[in-house]
Design goal:
This protein is of the alpha+beta class and 262 residues long. Helix content is 27%, strand content 29%. The chain has a single domain, classed as Fumarylacetoacetase-like, C-terminal domain (Fumarylacetoacetate hydrolase, domain 2). β12 and β13 form a beta hairpin. α1 packs across α3 and α5 packs across α7. The longest helix has 17 residues.
């Protein structure tokens, strides 16, 4: 780590206050030029621990930066990860209050639900598929507590990989789903298709992102337990959304998922 404990605590507090007041902070990378990736994950864990102390529980993880375009944008060569908490989950079709977020975007993803634990460091795509009992069409709400989304890798990692919420559709047994690489999605905003993609956009295979997560978490002494859910990354670009808009994801082989921002 390059920051001292007081600097890491300050960074964590800035992100908490930005989220609580829905008032973004300046980039941590500019406020604390020494901030590195180890510091950023420590800041993320600190804020997750505080939310757990307040009564939230971890239900899974999300993987970000899984598309080549996003990796080029931030100048990185690998994904990042964040935590999913129970108070981030919204019911399919239910309204979501846009005022809870600073400047939200929406991403369609294939959510995994694990039936068996995954412990790295040598997890493969096949291991992930063998451990998965079901998948679901999902819309992830990503939001940056950094002003104007002016983020570097360390900014988004510290900010829980910019994760803010998810709307999960119905679960389908993995055995009843086509090859996940070939699953396609159309992302609709107010009935207009704004983006399309497939499972191939996610590191070549969505399960590859879950394998990366399991192997990366092993360095933190963390196992992905049975019952956990994992969002492996966006299948399309992530448009901004605002109050008054309805968002739908139409997934081949999985069905639709939707929400309305109010």
């Amino acid at each position: 780590m390059t920051l001292n404990a007081e600097q890491r605590a300050t960074a964590a507090r800035l992100l908490r206050e930005a989220e609580h007041h829905v008032a973004p902070t300046e980039p941590l990378s500019s406020l604390l030029p020494g901030l590195d990736l180890t510091d950023a994950y420590a800041i993320q864990r600190d804020n997750i621990a505080r939310r757990l102390a307040d009564g939230a529980s971890v239900v899974g993880h999300k993987v970000g930066l899984t598309s080549a375009a996003m990796q080029r944008l931030l100048g990185v060569g690998e994904p990042d990860f964040g935590h999913l908490l129970d108070d981030m989950v919204h019911r399919d079709g239910a309204p979501v209050f846009a005022g809870h977020y600073c400047r939200p975007r929406i991403e369609p993803e294939i959510c995994f639900r694990l039936a068996r634990p995954l412990l790295g460091p040598d997890i493969t795509v096949q291991d992930v598929l063998d451990a998965t009992d079901a998948v679901a069409p999902t819309l992830e709400i990503v939001d940056s507590r950094i002003r104007d989304w002016k983020i570097t890798l360390v900014d988004t990692v510290a900010d829980n990989a910019s994760s803010a919420g998810l709307i999960c559709g119905p679960w389908t047994a993995l055995a009843d789903v086509p090859d996940l690489v070939s699953v396609t999605v159309d992302l609709l905003v107010d009935g207009v298709c704004v983006a399309s993609g497939s499972g191939r956009e996610v590191l070549g295979h969505p399960a590859a992102a879950v394998a990366w997560l399991a192997n990366t978490l092993a360095a933190f002494g963390t196992t992905l337990p049975p019952g956990d859910i994992v969002l492996p990354g966006a299948m399309t670009e992530a448009p901004f959304v605002t109050a008054g808009q309805r968002v739908e994801g139409h997934f081949s082989g999985l069905g639709p998922v939707s929400t309305s921002f109010v």
